[in-house]
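User: Batch of two.

Assistant: Item 1 of 2:
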Amino acid sequence: MPSASTVPASPAPDSTDRAARRAVTVFPVLVLAAGALGLAIPGSFAGWGTSVPYLLGVVMFCMGLTMTPKDFQGVARRPWAVGLGLVAHYVIMPGLGWLIAHALDLPPQLAAGVILVGCAPSGTASNVVTYLARGDVALSVSVATVSTVLAPLVTPALTLLLAGEYLPVDAGSMVGDILKTVLLPVLAGLAVRLLAGRYADRVLGALPWLSAATIAVIVAVVVAGSASAIKSAALLVFVAVVLHNGLGLALGYGAGQLARLGPPASRAMAFEVGMQNSGLAASLATAHFSPLAALPAAVFSVWHNVSGALVAAWMAHRARRTETARPGA
């Protein structure tokens, strides 16, 4: 999905808004279709599991290609708000994953998968959804950028702490995998943007669709790998994912409100907390646990984009009503 630099920080022409809405609408449909394909013909994806980290690297390279130095400058301008967003993200979602795994008494593989989703950095679609919600895009960009950069250190440590009771966690190996599949591709994309920005700008419009198609392939591979177990676990996983995402959105918004960041920043906080890089979670779960453990990430990949689009539409409607009712508006 589009990352920070592909959407403006302030209301834009209708064409840009329509393009963003189209991407958010089509993406979950594409991912849902890919999951159905993986479930219907799992044999067609046999042996594809080893390609998932490389596919994720493509997505993260696209993310890096859309970034500019301004994305990092925003951190220095608003360290308090960005710091709050990071703490909220890496406390609320991992904690919710652990609580939901216990509350639903999930089997070890699924419990580890849910927790791993919670320990992942912000989702790559959070920026565009924040834009559609009339939220603070600059804050969303900063939190997503820093959470991704910190992921090699934070995600393995949190996974070991919270999921270690369910399955063995090789945190050291996980650090290496995140560096290779997330941080290095992002830095490579950023380097290409800095060195060949004029040429990179020409392909920016295609990047969201390339990312969406690649994530769809990842979902198809993950679903195919656990197709035999989905029928018995699908409902339980869906309940866990809906609770995880819904509570994350609500608590993220509440954190912004408690900190008195204002409505636009609170809307950004909701999506930066509640939307996860589920592609990374699926890749790590497949590599370090099992295809079944990657199932929550595959379901989350579809659901958080559906819920994000719906919540963004509701927030934008409320924001417009407030602006219209304001004296002098």
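Item 2 of 2:
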Amino acid sequence: MIALKPINLSTPKTDITERLTSAEMAKLWATYMGNSMARCILSYYLQHVEDEDIKILVENAYNLSVDFMKTTEEIFKKENFPIPRGFSEEDDVNPGASRLFEDQFYVHYLKYTAKAGMSIYNVGYPLVFRKDVKDFFRYCLESTMDLMDQIKAILMHKGFIIKPPLIPIPDKVEFIHKDFLNGFFGHVRPLHALEITHFYDNIENNVTSKALIMAFAQVAKDEQVRQLFERGRDLTQTNLERYMQKLHDENLPSPSLLDHLVTNSTFSPFSDKIMLFHKADMFSMKLRAFGNSVAVNGRHDVGLVYTKSFAKISLFCEEAAKLMIENGWMEQPPYAAER
């Protein structure tokens, strides 16, 4: 590996005395809200985890969330920026609630949420310039990558997951022919590696998402919230069947469902507020994943699968947002001056 040649330049425009830009405010706010939620969820997981390796993993994730929140608060306080309300272990967690998930689920959950965190930090890093914010997001990204390595080590060591499908190494370099885009008529080529990768990723995300929303529907107190969770559960199942079928049509394996890792408890460990925020956030992550999937897709039938999913997931996110607003649960992010 090569080392980059140094460029010795400096500018006062990146100094910590500079005002926060809109991008810096936005990503710091999102980081605080996401980790405020994660701290609460993980504090409950720690009450019931028995496997020692998984317990250490959950503790590491919990400590990172607390650390990220603390640094974000420090930056906000320097700028007299109001600290978001977020979520609290006192108001949004019932530590006395019985076990809702088996230990194995916690590892899959952490992989999904670590992906979400890396998305915030990865997108944010190129957009932030102030030194303290830039250093913070680099730290967040590197720490979450270290956590992801621990997650994958446990998943593989304990046999909780299959790796993405194996496909043949190409014999030679080839160029695309005119039937590359076919998906419904004529000669339909096999899925290429990028399409397979994103189906695998979407399935992996959705089996975790389905198990979580199934559990939330099981324990939600508010009837409207419960019904929305049930619709989200059924929607996720339909999408999973479509994605899995595309891999199975190519005789390729796909990740398995995790529904069996949810217990039959109906006593909620979380407030409806935090559960609804969590699922709205997870479903919005799916929209971003669809964008990445469509960007590398070439077959018309695959594009249609993602288009259908996008429309229905967007509707779920809108309904969740309306319900949060009706209940006074949605905090407003920083916004431009109204001229």
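Residues 182-326 form a domain with the Ferritin fold (CATH 1.20.1260.10).
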